[in-house]
Amino acid sequence: MTAVDTAIEDRVSPWQTLKRGLALSPELRTGLAGTLLLAIVSTVGRGVVPVAIQQGIDDGLLTPGGPDVGYVAAIASVGAVILVITVISGYYMNVRLFTVSETALAALRTRTFRHIHDLSMLHQQGERRGVLTARVTTDVDQISQFLQFGGIILIVSSGQVLMATIVMAVYSWQLALVVWLVSLPLVFVVRYLQRRLAEAYVLVRERVGVMLGAISESVVGASVIRAYGVQDRTAERVDESVENYRVAQFRALRRSVVSGSVGEVFNGFALSAVIVAGVYLGVGGQLTVGQLTAFLFLVTLFVQPIMIGTEILNEAQNAISGWRRVLDILETEPDVADPGDDGTGLPAGPVDVRFADVAFSYPGGPRVLDDIDVAIAAQSKVAVVGETGSGKTTFAKLLTRLMDPESGEVRLSGVPLTRVSFESLRRRVVMVPQEGFLFDSTIAGNVRFANPEITHAEMYVAFSELGLADWIDGLPQGLDTPVGERGEALSVGERQLVALARAYVADPDLLVLDEATSAVDPATELRLSSALDAVTRGRTTVVIAHRLSTAENSDEVLVFDAGRIVQRGPHSTLVTQEGSIYAGLHASWVEQTRSV
Amino acid sequence: MAWRCLGAALDSGRKCVDGDMPDKGVITRGLRVLAMAVRRQPRIFTVAAFGAVFHSLLMLTGAFVNAWIVDSLVVPSFRSGSVDTGVLALVVVVLLSLSLFKITGIFIRRLGAGSMQFRLQAIHRREVTRRYLSLPVAWHQKHQTGSLLSNANADVEASFVPIAPLPFAVGTLVMLATAVAALFWTDWVLAMVGLVVFPILFGFNVAYARRMSPRMTRAQQLRADVSAVGHESFDGALVVKTMGREAEETVRFNKTADQLRDSLISVGRLRGLFDPIMSSLPELGTLLVLVLGAWRLSTNAVTLEEIVRVTMLFSVLAFPIRAITWVLADLPRSVVGWERVHGVLSATGDMVYGDDRLPESTAPAALSFRGVGFSYLPDNPVLKDVTFDVPPGKTVALVGPTGSGKSTIASLATRLVDPDTGVVALDGTDVRTLDHAALADTTALVPQLAFVFDDTIRNNISLERDLGGGDATVWQALRTAQADGFVAHLENGLDTQVGERGASLSGGQRQRLTLARALAGSPRLLIMDDATSAVDPKVEAAILAALKNSTRPASVLVVAYRRATIALADEVVYVENGRVVAHGGHEQLLATVPGYANLVTAYERAEAERAAEGEFDSDEWDTTESDREVSA
């Protein structure tokens, strides 16, 4: 996305985003009136010094009979009391602000986090993990920055401008008008400069992304880089992206300094104008020395908030676009939604499966499944085979309702899948995906993920039932062996063993295995599969496999080709259908796995 | 000690708890980081500091100018009732040029500081990634990807955050000293107000920085925790979904989010107290000056101009003093960041490459393992006394159960890791004495999990090595790896960008690309670590056939389960629990090594069992089961 696009998009309607945001986080309004009142009090305090100086000079220092020390002291005491009140109300304003906004935003984080999990798998996979994480981290941080600094500074700044205007107008409306006229263009200049700055920051963000990508390859691809001796190539890329980032940073800084200095220029202009006009007004008897001196303070008090306020307004656009991104996610209706209370549970007992005229295509893509009309009997074991891209995995995803069919219907035990509450569905139907993701915990921690109540002893029994007790025994810390980040401390095959055990202890009635043992050695695989046969008897099992040993071993085989089921029946029958897809796959399998 | 804590965090990935962080000496250590930064960029720092001092002195001048205006223009004009236009013009010129000079000062200071900060970040990012590229794979395996990324990014950034306000702070110190001198020059009584207020301001700042820094560090840590939980949970989203654990994951996330909330509120409370006090203290000083000024004026000790000047001085100084706070407040973060960065930069255990080159040759290479032992963790050996050969031009299959150490052998053969004991040799030369290029040109590893760069197909294959033959070589490699078909069908062919980690490709396609990458370099020794597991049987058969008929034969070490792969091998090395249990011809091992036979004939036996099973009534599962146990 180009900088211009972003700028335009951001201008669409910040107010609307703000309104949506406040509507979705009603907690933000807690005690708002009180906080605003405190803000007003602490803003008024900012006027103390100029007024005290004016009063002190005119009525205390320049009194005809010499300085009136007592009067000045009285003025100063009143000022000091007001200052103390200002400090106290400022403190309470800040505390309320921080407490309310952080509480609301923590809730927003959690809500967004949950919502992302509720989105469909397709939705989740459409985004990079880092992008999703940003929604619950940096984007929310931006909102918090805006509310705590931006928001309040905006209020305080407007208050300060108002307060300064009133004091100035009381002293001299003519001079106040001069200050206003001279300072007004500042708003437009700063806005223009800030827009350019925003563009520069878009580039900075883009380049930091590229840089992180390059650095991450040097870490994640360390062994490949080493094996091919291509460090120099990677180093060059990293260097280039680091340098590009630095250049973008400096460019943004240059623009930031330019827009930051504008206030100084206007301060100079405003002061000069005030002096010139003020001197003539004073000579005309319309202004006192104290009042003009107070104006010297007031000009700064007036120009500074205008500048800061304008800057904040523009920075607010960043925050608002962060907020908009969070809201966009929150307001995305999960397209594979939990029917919740409207749904029903699956009837107790074994589960059968029915695909009625199911078709599916990924958004914007061609049909990947068509005319799928098949019934799977309860308690049977069905193997799904076919070449890569034939639709096997899509079939499994529809079966477990990770996606909904484009047309047709999937029914479990006669209940349409879309009517089954997730609570019941996820408890009764479990799928083991090919890349068995493990959390950065121990083996036990990962297995417990599926069943938090399970004890160590029960877990050990579960591994034994799967024929994996000797593997666990061989590990340095047994079930308490840490698996590392994403399970990387284990070998690929071992990760699959843990993922399988995890699914097993979930105790489902329908178990779907998607090439869940592809990286395990044949003997272990077969041992597992026979163990699974034993322990899954009484359940319905659907296994997607490219090792045809699984197919040989199942009650029925579904053969997929180009998105359709082209053959079905027991292995022994299919293999004899000469010239069929299955016979071809099987011949190739046998050729590879048997003695030549 | 922070070092211990940081070291532990680096080594084990354990989180560094706040309590472990000593607060003592953090300022001192932070100043040392600053000194290092200044030493590395002395010229830019001098320029920036000059700009800052210039600007600060101009701000003081501003106070004098304002007082001078009141005294020599406002009061005389008001008294006399007429304006001296000459003085008025001079005032305007002085005010405008003062603005201009101040802006110049701001430009020099901020651009100088920024330039210094960004340069230091860039330099250290490059240095850190250079270390990543030269530290051995074994070191990488001990460190979490996430922390290495943040070492190169967030930690480098944190190290140099205080650089941005540093010149300003230096300018402020000069300004403070000058202001105190100016105060004394004006009137000693009014100066005393300064001597009271400035130290209070300064002390208050330091106390604030001290209290704030542990809270900030904790908030930063909790931010990282929230991010880590979020990232991991979204990474495992499919598992969360299929197991229906969304609620539990939300509870887990909510816990860290709430901790972060509490920590940010505690940061807010402190700042909420600090900000109003900081802006009110100088104002109280101004009021005090007014009262004392009235008294001094009544004794004719000072003039009105001098009173105005001093009050202006106070208001001018109020803001810059915060620059010192910024530096101090960011020091602890800087120290933590720098110590992590330093940890990477000073990490030892580099894999040193030798200078030896192998004689120029296109003939297949010989690989030998002699008494090789290896362990990732102490007392938990993965390999024990492994000895075997891959003779030139021969194909050796490495077979063994899951977790028996095959992948480790593959890593040792390409010197991704070094053995604890024993020797790995290529053509009789210990691989540790070979230079890196010689090693990389001779061997090629196709890993179990395919890693693809975010680049074009062409660059993923060639890795910009000098392959000779250009695209023809690339296509040849793709053909052998059975990947030419799908690449030819891509709209941009070899120029197709494959995306982050090859996201646009299927698992089988990624594996074939990495295989083509290995073949493109015409290695003399090819090592395949179960590199076709995500490839369909038919495709794998075609790949194996193409390898066999290749015009440029290489020695091959292949980790395999499939019989067809094993059948291609001249010899089989069978490992179990990190030991070579047997080696020899397939038939020979089949006859003499029960473990091996068990592994490779698993499918046949299963089939036989099934055949036998057919003779039983299908209800008699338990009998079948026990029969199976007996026969195994």
TrEMBL record, chain A:
Keywords assigned by UniProt, alphabetized: ATP-binding, Cell inner membrane, Cell membrane, Membrane, Nucleotide-binding, Transmembrane, Transmembrane helix, Transport
Residue stretches spanning the membrane: 28-49, 69-92, 152-171, 177-193, 265-283
Keyword Electron transport: no
Major localization listed first in the record, in broad terms: membrane
Residue intervals of the ABC transporter domain: 353-587
Ranges of residues in domain ABC transmembrane type-1: 33-318
InterPro entries recorded: AAA+_ATPase (IPR003593), ABC1_TM_dom (IPR011527), ABC1_TM_sf (IPR036640), ABC_transporter-like_ATP-bd (IPR003439), ABC_transporter-like_CS (IPR017871), P-loop_NTPase (IPR027417), Type_1_exporter (IPR039421)
Any one of the GO CC terms: plasma membrane
Alphabetized Gene3D superfamilies for the sequence: ABC transporter type 1, transmembrane domain, P-loop containing nucleotide triphosphate hydrolases
Pfam families membership: ABC_membrane, ABC_tran
Membrane disposition: Multi-pass membrane protein
SUPFAM superfamilies: ABC transporter transmembrane region, P-loop containing nucleoside triphosphate hydrolases
Protein origin, superkingdom: Bacteria
A GO molecular-function descriptor: ABC-type transporter activity
Localization of this protein: Cell membrane
PANTHER family, per the entry: ATP-BINDING CASSETTE SUB-FAMILY B (PTHR24221), ATP-BINDING CASSETTE SUB-FAMILY B MEMBER 6 (PTHR24221:SF654)
Protein name per its UniProtKB record: ABC-type multidrug transport system fused ATPase/permease subunit
Organism: Stackebrandtia albiflava
Automatic annotation (TrEMBL), chain B:
Main localization category: membrane
Transmembrane segments: 44-67, 87-108, 160-182, 188-208, 307-329
Entry's Gene Ontology cellular component terms: plasma membrane
Membrane topology according to the record: Multi-pass membrane protein
Acidic residues bias locations: 614-624
SMART domains in the cross-refs: AAA
Keyword Membrane: yes
Protein keywords: ATP-binding, Cell membrane, Membrane, Nucleotide-binding, Transmembrane, Transmembrane helix, Transport
Locations listed in the record: Cell membrane
Protein name: ABC-type multidrug transport system fused ATPase/permease subunit
UniProt organism field: Stackebrandtia albiflava
Taxonomic lineage of the native organism: Bacteria, Bacillati, Actinomycetota, Actinomycetes, Glycomycetales
